[in-house]
User: Fold this.
Amino acid sequence: MQARLDYYKIAPAGLQPMLAMEKYLRECGLDHTLVELVKTRASQINGCAFCLDMHTSDARKAGESEVRLYMLSAWHESSRFTEKERAALAWTEALTLVAKTHAPDEVYAELLKHFTEIEAVNLTLLITTINAWNRLAIGFRSVPLSEAKAAG
Assistant:
């Protein structure tokens, strides 16, 4: 695959607010492993190779196990995820597929059993941001970092 264009070089000022949001999200108190699971799951749904490459690597560096990463696309059927993680993953799916799901009340109610209101907002900002990054990477055909390194 060949990249269509380098959006970082073309519109750096436009990306600054997204990078500022990423900084906020790193510092907002959400568990780093949970953050990477959410980013990975949204990227799986959207089919974003660039983000999957990045966030599975980041998840491993944060101590996430290979088996949980393998099971992430089937988290509904796996006992390897906590109730809190399951609530976050359900919210991730509901918002990533919002045109289909319309963010169901039961998913939101389960979210609030495990997250405070500020955590729910921060999680929603996280999901919103990764979906935006997915659209940039997919739309402009960003080459996954591991592939770019392998190509030299």
